[in-house]
């Protein structure tokens, strides 16, 4: 049974909505691209376009802004409408999620 957070992320992924969440103590603004499981845990691949990050952010559209996170490590998750950000090195090459449930439509 998916967690509440997973269900929220699933709908946002399908609708190409933005996610605001806290992860590892940093507030992040992200576009969800892939959602599913890795070793039985809920996991997501995001493109972070704003907010904070321990490793810093590159320019929007750059490959350095991909984030692979376990869903249960996200806090204060909210959804909003807005531009959907990605990079040319998109999720087609992802290894973040082994068992893909949904991918953002392109």
Distance between the terminal alpha carbons, to the nearest Å? 27 Å
Unreliable residue runs: none
Q: What oligomeric state best describes the polypeptide chains here?
A: single chain
The portion of residues forming beta strands comes to 35-45%
Number of strands: 6
Radius of gyration, in Å, reads 12 Å
SSE string, helix = H, strand = E? HEEEEEE
Major pleated sheet: 6 strands, antiparallel
Given helix and strand content, the structural type is mainly beta
Give the helix level as a range of percent: 10-25%
State the domain count.
1
Principal-axes geometry comes out as: globular
Task: Give the count of helical stretches.
Answer: 1
Summed over residues and divided by their number, the pLDDT gives a mean of 94
Description:
This protein is mostly beta strands and 106 residues long. It has one domain (4-103). 11% of the residues lie in helices and 44% in strands. It contains 1 helix and 6 strands. It has one helix at 4-15, and strands spanning 18-23, 26-38, 41-51, 66-70, 74-80, 99-103. Strands 1, 2, 3, 4, 5 and 6 form a 6-stranded antiparallel β-sheet that branches.
